[in-house]
Write a structure and sequence with these properties.
The structure holds two protein chains of two kinds.
Chain A: H1 11-32, E1 46-51, E2 55-61, E3 63-66, E4 69-73, E5 78-82, E6 85-88, H2 93-111, H3 131-142, H4 148-160, E7 172-182, E8 189-191, H5 200-209, E9 214-225, E10 231-234, E11 237-241, H6 244-254, H7 261-277, E12 286-292, E13 296-302
Helix pairs in contact in A: 6-7
Chain B: H1 3-20, E1 28-29, E2 33-38, E3 41-46, E4 50-52, E5 55-58, E6 64-68, H2 83-94, H3 102-108, E7 115-123, H4 124-145, H5 151-164, E8 169-177, E9 182-188, E10 194-197, E11 200-203, H6 211-217, H7 232-249, E12 257-263, E13 266-272
Antiparallel strand pairs in B: 1-7, 2-3, 2-11, 3-12, 4-5, 6-7, 7-8, 8-9, 9-10, 12-13
The chains are: A alpha+beta, B alpha+beta.
Chain lengths: ~300, ~300
């Protein structure tokens, strides 16, 4: 502590004030106004997801760095819920790990039929057998797969829970929604998702027992979110990460509708690598996850520059 | 607030500034530049990335500018007794350089001139301005006063410019010096500090990652033991490897490795493309050219 000698208030005390506060604290306050570093740009990384006909490709890069320095090359975190939903996470790595853990915990809770955190009454056993709860529990036991829309809503909910001190993560939720088309004369489509969420039981039973052809088409679902969970959906492509602007430009110029899965790999890979050429904070390897309806997820490593 | 708090606070701010440097909004050449001496001269190398707040604005930039070259295209005519020499020299230049004529050309070309380049790092605008101004000054000196400058004179002139103006530039001035008949390397820092480096110099944001590696591998050349100095091919492969390693670690360095071999004969350009990561299971996309292939690698100094 600097101890200044006690002075009687006088005109010279104004000079004392000037000297102490203005010349010592003001430079520090001025330096304080430097830009705070954006947490989303600390570790780097980018993701691009594109849709084709009955398939989706998600390309992720492999750079983990601290500002300009590259520390490690390992692919970005991609949560594979099941063969038809993927969640890619990019941003501050600590928050990515926390968020993916929280998301997995929620998925576990749903699997074990503990509806904690969703506002439902907690039913520790299935003894409470009102018709509504039994249909919920049988609903979840039959379809262990979550729809991409629900996954997206869950992720948005988790992010918005931390509105005031957010997770610095920009997730991308992609998936394939099953559309069962039963050909009966006029060819009615029973869409097994969206608003008729809780009536799936009935539709499933009808579809299986009939002799008519049931073609399963897969409708791609793509959704990017910001740090507090605002969803922006697209039928074509979504991007996230530090190279977001370049990726949007590349994808916009290269995408076209109804790409087959082989074409989609080429288009998505080329758009992704082209944008990565122009970004300092992404690169060092690209992994493409190709999700095809009915066939599962395939991992493809692309050869890429190491700068 | 005590002085101790001052110093801690300021040191934290300086550390933060280092991390922020990659996201500054002016065009900066966060870069890796390296110059090493070898037996007959110097080998200089640089990466080729220029970036603006994390976006690569030029991925094939040239950061090595030549200030002194053997022929500017302008010959300051010496006194009349030398006109004959001049015309003979031009005749030989036009004629075929057969091995029988080597003797004659060598005797004419006894006076080698300095070849000097500067490797630029820092703000692109400032360093381009410096290179152009210095080149103009030296050309003026050669035309008006018929004085050929040496690398040492170039370095001192640069230092005066940097010291007087507040430019954000950090340079390596290297080349073959005809007055000393060997390769020389000068390193000029941001405030105008001029240091002549005995064996090698490296600068830029990516230089910190390779300092230890160069220290370990550069031969000991005390007392000018030329036998322990590298040959040209060893020096070129070393510079290539060093800059490749820096490109791999540093986010603001990238692209190709541009190398120049400078000796008394002049300069020679080499461009090296770092390898892609071709693990066996990697797939290369069809007809996708990585950035560093094609006709756009024309060397313009």
């Amino acid at each position: 502590m600097i101890i200044y000698p006690f002075r009687k208030p006088s005109s010279s005390s104004f000079l004392f004030f000037l000297f102490f506060f203005v010349f010592q604290l003001l430079p520090i306050l001025v330096l304080c106004q430097q830009q705070q570093q954006d947490p989303l740009h600390l570790h780097g990384g980018s993701i691009l997801a594109m849709s084709g006909s009955n398939c989706i490709a998600m390309a992720v890069d492999s750079r983990f760095g601290s500002g300009p320095q590259m520390i490690h090359t390992c692919p970005r975190t991609v949560l594979l819920l099941h063969s038809r939903v993927m969640v890619g996470l990019v941003g501050l790595e600590g928050d990515v790990q926390s968020l993916s853990h929280e998301f997995s915990v929620q998925m576990e809770n749903l699997k074990l039929r503990r509806f904690l955190g969703f506002g439902f009454a907690s039913s520790s056993s299935s003894s409470s057998s009102s018709s509504s709860t039994s249909s919920y529990s049988s609903q979840w036991s039959k379809t262990t797969s979550m729809t991409p829309k629900s996954a997206s809503c869950l992720m948005s909910h988790l992010l918005y829970q931390r509105r005031t001190a957010p997770y610095y993560v920009e997730p991308i939720v992609v998936g394939l929604e099953e559309i069962k088309a039963t050909c009966r004369g006029q060819g009615n489509d029973h869409i097994s998702n969206d608003s008729n969420h809780y009536n799936d039981d009935d539709d499933d039973d009808k579809g299986d027992g009939d002799d008519q052809e049931t073609m399963i088409r897969y409708k791609p679902f793509l959704c990017a979110q910001d740090v507090i969970g605002a969803q922006s959906k697209s039928h074509a492509f979504v991007c996230s990460g530090v190279a977001k602007k370049s990726l949007y430009g590349c994808a916009e110029s290269l995408w076209r509708p109804n790409l087959s899965s082989k074409e989609l790999v080429q288009v998505c890979g080329k758009a992704f690598l082209s944008a990565l050429e122009r970004d300092c904070l992404s690169g060092y390897g690209a992994v493409l996850y190709l999700m095809e309806g009915g066939k599962g997820i395939q991992e493809i490593q692309l050869s890429c520059r190491n700068d | 607030m005590t002085w101790r708090h001052h110093s801690i606070f300021l040191s934290l701010l300086i550390a933060q500034k280092g991390i922020e440097s990659i996201l500054s909004s002016d065009v900066s050449m966060g870069t890796t530049i390296l110059a090493v001496r070898y037996r007959d001269g110097v080998v200089v190398g640089a990466d080729s990335r220029t970036s603006v707040s994390g976006y690569v604005s030029n991925r094939l930039a040239t950061k090595i500018s030549f200030i002194l070259e053997d022929d500017f295209g302008i010959y300051a005519l010496p006194p009349s007794s030398d006109v004959q020499l001049q015309s003979q020299f031009l005749k030989h230049k036009r004629a075929d350089k057969a091995s029988t004529e080597k003797k004659n050309t060598e005797s004419l070309r006894k006076d080698y001139k300095s070849t000097c380049c500067i490797c630029r790092s820092g703000s692109a605008a400032d360093t381009q301005y410096l290179a152009d101004t210095i080149r103009h000054q030296l050309l003026r000196r050669k035309v008006l006063h018929s004085m050929s400058s040496s690398v040492s004179e170039v370095a001192h002139l640069l230092k005066n410019y940097l010291h007087n103006d507040s430019l954000s530039a950090s340079l390596i001035c290297a080349g073959y010096d005809h007055k000393r008949d060997k390769g020389v390397i000068f390193s000029i820092d941001m405030g105008g500090t001029l240091m002549e480096q005995e064996g090698w110099a490296c600068n830029g944001s990516g230089s910190g990652y390779i300092l230890g590696m160069i220290d370990a591998n550069y031969p000991d050349i005390q007392n000018d033991k030329t036998s322990s100095m590298w040959r040209e091919d060893e020096a070129v492969s070393f510079v290539t490897k060093a800059i490749e390693l820096a490109i791999e670690r540093d986010g603001s360095s990238g692209g190709v490795v541009r190398i120049f071999v400078i000796n008394k004969e002049g300069k020679k350009a080499i461009i090296h493309r770092p390898a892609c990561n071709h693990a066996p299971k990697n797939v290369a996309l069809s007809k996708f050219a990585p950035a560093t292939r094609g006709n756009d690698l024309i060397n313009r100094s």
